[in-house]
Amino acid sequence: MSSNTLTAAEASGPQKPAAGFEGDRQDNTLGGAVRGYVDKLRGGDLGALPAVLGIITLGILFTVLRPGTFLSPINLANLAVQATPIIVLAMGLVFVLLLGEIDLSAGVVSGVCSAVLAQLLVQAGVGWPIAVLAAIATGAVIGMFTGSLVGMVGIPSFVVTLALFLGWQGVTLRLIGQGGTVPVREPVIRALANENLPLAVGWALAVLVAVAYAVVELWRWRAKRARDLAHQPLLLVVLRVVLMAVVVLGVTAILSQDRALSAAVDLAGIPYAIPLVILLLLVVTFVLSRTSFGRHMYAVGGNAEAARRAGINVTRIRVMAFVISSSLAAISGILATSRLSSVTPDAGAGNTLLYAVGAAVIGGTSLFGGRGRARDALLGGLVIAIIANGLGLLGVAAYLNFVITGGVLLLAASVDALARRRAATAR
Amino acid sequence: MSAPERDHGTTAVGRPTLELRGVDKSFGAVQVLHDVHLTVYPGKVTALVGDNGAGKSTLIKGIAGIHPFDSGEVEFEGERVTLHSPRDAAKLGIEVVYQDLALADNLDVVQNMFLGRERKRGVLLDEQSMEVAARETLAKLSVRTLKSVRQLVSSLSGGQRQTVAIAKAVLWESKLVILDEPTAALGVAQTRQVLDLVRRLADAGHAVVFITHNMVDVFEVADRVAALYLGRVAADVPIDQVDRTQVIELITSGRSGDLGLSAEDLED
Asked: According to the model, what pLDDT value does residue A353 have?
């Protein structure tokens, strides 16, 4: 592989020193990739490992404790739908956490947005597209407000969002009314969490996703290799492609089984909420990893001063993080509304935010900023949903439910803090 | 996006890249720089020395446009220019490599080198062309210590981080590179690497201003030495006209033999 470095050096002009990027050469073998991964873990970057281990361990645990129930198609479909609002809220929080900030009001913002949605649908009687747009716009405006207080006025985000956590609950209460519940029967909104894609469409989408992933990954690998850039070994790329196909098609197969409790009705297919979450996942991943805006988010989170000196508008990035976070919170609120088919005055309060922060952190997003991805929200959200779902199946007392979920967040935060310390001392 | 083309052919070594004439700077009632004259040549390393508080940082911050000068003339490649903001300085091709480096730990080498000036194709980042350019720049500087250009900066040693910061200046075709104590926190071997790099930087035609407290470094790489004493330039001379003792005298008392500030200057 020494030709790699030679070509790079030759292209550089009169001097022809060997560049000698030994690591790039190692990368091209599977052994090198494995060593690189182990180094990364040692360096304190655990990536998706805790979440994947969590999903497997908890899956086995609840299967053993509730055999027949936990892995039943109806419970798995239920679990997936249960996870969607958590995942979307966590996805928004990833942006805020990336900057090393926190948004304690994200949960109740989703509540305010659901209340706006519900009242527009029920009281004003507008169509669902307008109601949905209004809910998301409400989220964006709220995010702009929070972000301005943090980024422009300079109040610590912890304090701003703690104040808003209380404030927005008041607004939701005013919108919905004391003790009231606004039922949402609008068919499209209700369908999100309660209706399924036709089986054929579900399969077609699944195959499309698996194939598209394979094509993109292999094409990128080829392009990098052709230009002698740092790339992973082909075997690893193929393994990833196969794993993705197995997961996507496997989930589709499970959700395509008839899960109706009575033989008289058919209940099968992928709930509409799932492709929506996948779409958001793709968009957020794209923004964070393929655009300069995303790159600047990481830069501000990693070293705000360096970003400022590099000419990045740090204030704008801060404000935008909150705008995106609150807009995604609005979508999370819409999904929650669909699942419950109603909005209550305490929508988005309680443990909603704790679940979402937990999801992001378990997935691998750092509370200290600079590290996080969209997929963290997905994986971590699944872990949280499995815990909530499993504890529900076990019928544990409410107090234990709180204690356990709080404990899991603490555990994830400890792992994050220890990994960070490790990374600092490894240098 | 595109940095102005550097042309080795027409940039005669004789013409200074940067020339400061009678530059003053005050912060409130405190005058930090008095009538500073400094000339920086392409292809030469100018060591800027002076005790703490002599005005070195103020001087480079003025050149970088962070704290603009109050009065005096600044010529860049023979033309009068104003340096009122970091943007002005960047546009001219002045790059400052700060002591605290200004790199983002969580980004890799390529991402750091292009930070704030990413190459794009449409809305997409053009990762491949950025990686190629980063590699070429590092190869040009004969940087052999990096394992991979896709390594996170957090995994680099102090010397390697300095290397990346300097390579960034080269990547952007900077005409004038100002290095703020680049060897301050480094070990022996790493200092060696950075000094070699500074030399290659000048040999490639860049004008280099090198701030340091270390006399060994000065005589190792510098072509010229400019000594600041209480906000005045005590001397701005070729390195072969002074020896170590003289430079230290210039730093500590502003005078050394017939070099340095006049008694009149030293009084006020």
From this structure: 92
ipTM of predicted assembly, 2 dp: 0.83
Measured between alpha carbons, how far is B148 from B128 in angstroms, rounded to an integer?
14
Domain-embedded: residue A133: no
Whether A214 is covered by a domain: the verdict is: yes
pLDDT in tens, A118-171: 999 998 889 999 999 999 999 999 999 999 999 999 999 999 999 999 999 999
Q: Is residue A251 part of a domain?
A: yes
Residue B162 backbone phi and psi in degrees, to 5: -60, -40
Is B150 part of any domain?
A: no
Residue B102 to residue A15, Cβ atoms within 8 A = no
Mean pLDDT taken over chain B: 84
For helices A352-363 and A73-98, the axis angle rounded to 10 degrees is: 80
pLDDT digits (tens, 9 = 90+) for B172-197: 878 999 998 888 877 788 888 888 88
Contact A229 B132 (CB under 8 A): yes
Q: Residue B220 is part of a domain; what is its CATH number?
A: 3.40.50.300
Contact flag B107-A302 (C-beta cutoff 8 Å): yes
- On whether residue B119 sits in a domain, the answer given is no
Tell me the whole-structure pTM to 2 decimals. Answer: 0.85
Confirm whether B175 is domain-assigned: yes
| Residue A172 to residue A338: CA distance in whole angstroms | 17
Residues of chain A positioned with their CB less than 8 A from the CB of B98 = 309
Q: Is B253 on the interface with A (CB under 8 A)?
A: no
Strand partners, A196: A271
DSSP 3-state of A134: helix
- B window 43-102, beta carbon within 8 A of A: 86-87, 90, 98, 100-102
Q: Which residues of A touch B116 (CB under 8 A)?
A: 296, 299, 307, 310-312
Domain count, chain A: 1
